[in-house]
Amino acid sequence: GVTQSPTHLIKTRGQQVTLRCSSQSGHNTVSWYQQALGQGPQFIFQYYRKEENGRGNFPPRFSGLQFPNDSSELNVNALELDDSALYLCASRFAGEETQYFGPGTRLLVL
Amino acid sequence: GQQLNQSPQSMFIQEGEDVSMNCTSSSIFNTWLWYKQDPGEGPVLLIALYKAGELTSNGRLTAQFGITRKDSFLNISASIPSDVGIYFCAGLNGGATNKLIFGTGTLLAVQP
Q1: Looking at beta carbons, which residues of chain A come within 8 Å of B25?
Q2: Fewer CB within 10 Å, N side or C side of chain A?
Q3: Number of H-type helices and E-type strands within chain B
Q4: What whole-number percentage of chain B has pLDDT above 90?
Q5: What is the torsion angle, in degrees rounded to the nearest 10, for the CA atoms of residue B99, residue A59, residue A88 and residue A26?
Q6: Eight-state DSSP code of residue A61
Q7: Per the omega criterion (within 30 degrees of 0), is the bond before B112 cis?
């Protein structure tokens, strides 16, 4: 399945953070979502063949990378208090609609 | 960001009761999905609906894709304690990005 690390993270405002995701075997497309407490997940962006090919309403300080083994990273610069949330990655095979979610990384910004 | 309207916000029921929840949108979708999220976990897909008017079952779960393509409902029959969790609807319009638009969630609590 999809795995994510770390499971929990505490940062202070202004710092930078990197979250990691390993896609399900054979999946070549990964999406990242932000889920604030009590809300549904919000789409951040999607990567396919190492290129970002879709972005939600998130500023440029949210960036990502996708590696040849289809693992990926979400980087957030200049952390703000409102960035505190559960960050979910989801992988799929391009051309299929079903996305499989990881357990998430819970980020707390103080 | 955009979220779909989901109701009710929460439900507290007795084991064995049937449950119904629904989801509405101001825009149409080509696919409706229902997910369940347990504490500390990511959402898990329960049912996917691909055609307006479609009624699909998965065990005790039944979901329908509204005729207008702007709504969907999920029914759970004969609830059991492990049904506890947060249920999310999500709309999808496909294409290269395949971005999911989630609802606000329904918290279900089942008392044994």
Answers
A1: none
A2: C
A3: 0, 11
A4: 87
A5: 60
A6: T
A7: no
Contacts (Cβ under 8 Å, ≥6 apart) of A99: A31, A90, A91, A92, B45, B98, B100
The rounded distance, in Å, linking the Cα atoms of A67 and B84 is 37
Inter-chain touch A41–B100, beta carbons under 8 Å: yes
Residues in CB range of B66: below 8 A, 6 or more apart: B32, B52, B53, B72, B73
Residues with Cβ within 8 Å of residue B110, at least 6 apart in sequence: B13, B14, B15, B79, B80, B81, B83, B84
Closest to A57 (Cβ–Cβ): which among B1, B4, B88? B1
User: What amino acid occupies position B21?
Assistant: M
On whether the CB atoms of residues B72 and B23 are closer than 8 A, the answer is yes
d(CA B90, CA B105): 10
The token pair that represents B87 in the structure block:
């249920």
Chain segment A22-70, per-residue pLDDT in tens: 998 888 899 999 999 989 999 999 999 899 989 999 999 999 999 988 7
Is B48 part of the contact surface with chain A (CB cutoff 8 Å)? yes
